[in-house]
Amino acid sequence: MARRVAKDTPLAEIILRRYEKPHNLEGRELIKKLCLSIGLLQPGDSRDVIVDVFQVLIEKKEELSTKDIETAVIANREKHNLELIGITPPNIRRQLKRLKSLFLIETNHTLYRISENATLLELYEEKIKKYYLDSIVSRVKEYFEAVSETKE
Q1: Which end of the chain is more exposed for a tag (fewer CB within 10 A), N or C?
Q2: CA angle 111, 14, 17 (to 5 degrees)
Q3: pLDDT tens-digit profile of 88-144?
Q4: In DSSP terms, which residues pair with 106 in a beta bridge?
Q5: What's the number of CA atoms in the CB half-sphere (13 Å) around residue 11?
Q6: Which pTM does this prediction carry?
Q7: 93 and 59 together in one domain
Q8: How far apart are CA 73 and CA 67, in angstroms?
Q9: Dihedral sign (CA 32, 35, 41, 43)
Q10: Cβ–Cβ < 8 Å for 86, 47
């Protein structure tokens, strides 16, 4: 009989990276570094459509459909002389889902916007730091405590 292997699926996860201070960065490069810092983009990854999707939502400050986002992403990539790869509707939706999973954006039926029209700093403080990060850190602490108790 085949053995079943339990799949360890995390309830939540976040990747945090520390880079140099954002002194001389602006526009797309600043948003790209933010995406790298919170794990939405991997270092050296050439497929960085998430940067454009996030930038469009930040700059437009209104509810946008996936088609509006796709059109604006194409314009943004052309403006920065970047290849138009990865700009398919399924990939745009996947990137939106990733932004939504970090509580950075929200949906209203088929429209997307920055969550609660809040500033990114407010979202970081209220959603990521207080809710998401604290819950992960406290659970990791529980594992440390449980292992410590079994060793003593």
Answers
A1: N
A2: 110
A3: 999 999 999 999 999 999 998 889 999 998 999 999 999 899 888 999 999 999 999
A4: 113
A5: 7
A6: 0.85
A7: yes
A8: 10
A9: positive
A10: yes
